[in-house]
Write a structure and sequence with these properties.
Elements (H helix, E strand, L loop, with lengths): L4 H6 L1 H15 L6 H10 L5 H4 L4 H10 L6 H20 L1 H11 L1 H22 L3 H4 L2 H20 L10 H14 L3 H10 L4 H22 L18 E2 L4 E2 L7 H4 L9 H5 L2 H33 L7 H21 L2 H13 L27 H27 L7 H26 L5 H16 L2 H9 L7 H11 L4 H30 L11
Antiparallel strand pairs: 1-2
Helix pairs in contact: 2-10, 2-11, 3-12, 6-10, 6-21, 6-22, 7-8, 7-10, 7-21, 8-10, 8-13, 11-18, 11-20, 12-17, 16-17, 16-20, 16-21, 16-22, 16-23, 16-24, 17-20, 18-20, 19-20, 19-23, 19-24
Length: 529
């Protein structure tokens, strides 16, 4: 029996804490692909592509020694699996948003945890005979990506239960999602200690079953309504300790007859802000995904410089460098938990100083009271600043990635992590500020799906890099750096739109003041209703 919304509200802190932990361990773990790739290669996934041209004796030797051959063909095939999984990680958000609006987060979370458990079980099973069962990796990463985004997307509705700190909780949720890329590097540390890869995957599958149980016991069947949602009313009970609210579901059927907004979904989708955000998010997604998928080969090139026949010592050094830097990159993903609340703070900057949104519907305002900021204009201002800051970091990341200095790439790792957490918080905050609440899920899902389709370009870029460019990522990184400058188009339009809103507000206030004078009401006696 699913708990009611009032029961879920009493358990909101337990749900929030467990959702953060579950996001860290089960959401976008596939983004820690660099560490997983090393383990899959060590376990022999698609190594048969490298030994097809070898003699039978060398095949037997590699099997008995437990060391598998590696080659470009193997890396291209495994990278294709990463492309599919990362695509589903973003593309599934549109149908998920529609389904969640209709059925609530509970069934999707149950399905997501089941898919993740199944993905770990399939990887563990394939590891018993990788020469035959390697194709299972494509199904496994598909389930992994879909299950992960189910857990992520459903957790983004939970902050609605936290009122004034909703943006902060939302940023923490996004931060835990972005930080989940640290999970596979953590798993690799356990793997390097000698623990069987198959045992690790089976244990992980069992842990995903605990997520299923937690959701079954604590998550309500209905979605968490936003404070402005008509599906519930807020009753503030003032006492000496706190403010609490009770959700009155009895009015739900009556209030559902009302329309949340006069703005249609088609108008929101076709609006300039949403279209510009598609360009910014698609560009950023491709930039970030390509770096994660090709990072190991980039590091290897900085050691071997594309030498087709490196010495044994150089090969060993390249392998050690790749393992070391991929572990550092994975560990740095935890920075998202610290940096995402920062962008949430920027998005909430001076919002407490803004007038209530209902105040804009009244012509009479107190002139004796201090003038307050317009809420909508302040939201746009904060979003514009957040996008400018994020895009500056992205361009800096692109410049550093062009420099042929391996230790300096640690800075690019940090910037990559920060941008990946910031960009989703910026986009979510912008949609929440500009569009009706009942459009948020669909717009976010549509944007993620289009960005995921565009990010599929990372596979041909990767093939171009390891093939024609012989592992040299310079020209691809240079092209992506130029392309990333398009990210400033969105804050440019936000500046233009904000200026128009300020002009309209000034004209509206002037007309209201003139009307008050005509009616003979002294300005000092005007009051707010």
């Amino acid at each position: 029996m699913a708990p009611s919304l009032s029961q879920a509200y009493r358990r909101r802190w337990w749900m929030a804490i467990t959702a953060v932990i579950e996001n860290l361990l089960f959401s976008a773990v596939l983004l820690g692909w660099g560490s997983l790739l090393i383990m899959l290669k060590n376990e022999g996934f698609y190594s048969h592509l490298c030994i097809e041209n070898e003699t039978i004796s060398s095949n037997v030797t590699s099997w008995e020694s437990g060391e598998w051959l590696s080659c470009v063909e193997q890396e291209e095939m495994l990278n294709l699996g990463f492309t599919i999984g990362s695509f589903l990680l973003s593309a599934a958000t549109l149908p998920l948003g529609i389904l969640m609006d209709k059925y609530g987060p509970r069934p999707l979370r149950l399905i997501g945890s089941s898919c993740f458990a199944a993905s770990c079980a399939m990887i563990a099973s394939a590891a018993y005979n990788p020469e035959v069962l390697s194709p299972l990796i494509f199904i496994a990463v598909s389930f992994n990506g879909f299950g992960g985004i189910c857990l992520t997307f459903t957790s983004l509705t939970l902050p609605n239960m936290f009122g004034n700190v909703r943006s902060t909780i939302l940023s923490v949720m996004i931060g835990s999602y972005a930080s989940s890329a640290v999970t596979f590097p953590g798993v690799k540390l356990v793997y390097d200690l000698g623990v069987s890869f198959r045992i690790i995957m089976w244990v992980w599958s069992g842990m995903a079953c605990m997520v299923f149980l937690n959701c079954f016991l604590n998550w309500p069947a209905e979605s968490f309504p936003a404070p402005e949602d008509v599906r519930y009313t807020l009753v503030y009970c003032v006492d000496t300790t706190n403010l609490a609210f009770r959700i009155r579901i009895s009015l739900k059927k009556i209030l559902q007859l009302n329309i949340l907004s006069s703005v249609s979904l088609c108008q929101s989708v076709c609006s300039p802000i949403f279209l510009w955000s598609l360009i910014t998010m698609a560009m950023t997604q491709l930039r970030l995904i390509f770096f994660m998928g090709a990072m190991n080969k980039m590091i290897e090139f900085m050691v071997t410089y594309g030498d087709p026949h490196p010495s044994v010592e150089l090969e060993k050094e390249a392998e050690e460098k790749v393992g070391f830097y991929s572990s550092i990159f994975g560990t740095l993903q935890l920075l998202c938990l610290l940096t995402c609340p920062l962008i949430g703070y920027i998005m909430d900057w001076k919002m407490k100083e803004c007038e209530d949104e209902k105040a804009t519907t009244h012509a009479e305002k107190s002139q004796s009271a201090p003038s307050k900021r317009d809420r909508r204009i302040q939201k746009l201002t904060n979003a514009m600043r957040a996008f400018i800051f994020t895009n500056l970091l992205l361009v800096t990341f692109g410049i550093i990635s062009l420099i042929d200095n391996l230790p300096l790439q640690l800075v690019s790792f940090v910037l990559h992590t920060i941008v990946r957490g910031f960009i989703h918080s910026c986009c979510g905050g912008l949609y929440a500020a500009v569009y009706p609440a009942n459009h948020f899920g669909t717009l976010t899902g549509l944007q993620s799906m289009i960005s995921a389709v565009f990010a599929l370009l990372q596979q041909p870029l990767f093939i171009l890099m390891v093939g024609h460019l012989r592992g040299n990522p310079y020209w691809i990184n240079f092209g992506l750096l130029i392309f990333s400058l398009a990210g400033f188009l969105l804050p440019g339009y936000l500046f233009y739109h904000r200026r128009n809103l300020i002009r309209k507000k000034t004209e509206r206030d002037r007309q209201a003041a003139n009307q008050s004078v005509k009616d003979g009401v002294p300005l000092t006696q005007m009051h707010f209703h």
